[in-house]
């Protein structure tokens, strides 16, 4: 089943064309890694897929049963941030008339807390969590509404190796249960280890295919 189909997409900021005739698809259960140097349009692609930018040309076909979860690139959550990890996850419950969570919503929040290894720290202020714990909280929040496509924009960028693997192992577990993943990264090793397919954006052209065909640059490349 196709969860997103992008065909001949062109996106521009005014006269500055950033994405030029891009086509690719994401299928159910894919772990698509998106690689490419700074400024080639990776975040612009995500913003277009989320509907925030109107394509100049081409189409982004998102079937009705595709629900997207998104973990954006940068957040500035400092020590003063007042919400607990659990409350932060619960922020992504859909708008409701009564101000408190229903039992079903609470159960769902607790499930996400469990499945993202946050049980022991659920009541801790998010601002005091480590980088890896924060990323797991962002993941839990994004997964709360049960999306079938998860977009991660550089989620491992600020993490040490152990935390990177922990986070991506977790994401892989969800992927193996049918979640499709689109993971934007500058880390070619992680791309090769976790991806099933790739989209390589060079700024001039695009390549896509199974992960074993990823054209890994020589050392000193765009890593
Ligand atoms: N709102 C905007 N208005 C005008 N130009 C923009 C805007 N957002 C991004 N750009 C430009 O579009 C190009 C692509 O930016 P984008 O953030 O999509 O790249 P990226 O591949 O995600 O980069 P990075 O890896 O550094 O996050 C850049 O030249 C950037 O300066």
Automatic annotation (TrEMBL):
Similarity field: Belongs to the ABC transporter superfamily.
Q: Does the keyword RNA-binding apply?
A: no
Asked if the record carries the keyword Transport, the reply is yes
InterPro entries recorded: AAA+_ATPase, ABC_transporter-like_ATP-bd, Metal_Ion_Import_ABC, P-loop_NTPase
Q: What is the lineage of its organism?
A: Bacteria, Bacillati, Bacillota, Bacilli, Lactobacillales
Domain ABC transporter as annotated: residue spans: 4-223
Write down what this protein is called. Answer: ABC transporter ATP-binding protein
Q: Supply the PROSITE patterns for this chain.
A: ABC_TRANSPORTER_2
One GO molecular function term of this record is: ATP binding
Which keywords accompany this UniProt record?
ATP-binding, Nucleotide-binding, Transport
